[in-house]
Amino acid sequence: MLQKRKNMAKIVIIFCISALTALAAVAQADNRGWDGEHFEKNQQHNFKKIAKKLGLTDAQKTQAKTIFQDNKEVVKPIITSLRSEQVILRSLINADTIDVAAIRSETAKISGIQAEMNINRAKVGAQFRAILTPEQLTILKTLHNKGPHKVDVTTNPAE
Q1: pLDDT by residue (tens digit) across 38-69?
Q2: Which of 44, 60, 106, 146 is the most buried (most CB within 10 A)?
Q3: The pTM is what?
Q4: Residue 151 lies in a domain
């Protein structure tokens, strides 16, 4: 009987540690979101990779960085809104009682915000494509056709 209690205590402790580790990972991932240092470094890397593949001139690089830098101020409040609505949705999903109408409403809000992000991405992408030569546009289209999420030149790279 004593051995069973010890084993049960060990299982409970392992479960608690696992749960805390998972929560810590989620919190850390959430802190590295759109405006985190990790994200900006990743965007810098992506921009350098794209610039090299497209053969951007120094003038084009400057223009592109200006486009993306100017867009940061536009995107920042959208991202802040998206994050806060996602927190609300998570709390609704994990609530003790299920409020289907509230979950649907919050999901609709998030969809609207994501639509704004996509519209912004399209506008910034058009501005970026406007500075490219026809040859560079062909290369860019080829890169986009290689698959989703392989290359995203419409996000905001850091300087």
Answers
A1: 555 556 668 888 889 899 999 999 999 999 99
A2: 106
A3: 0.62
A4: no
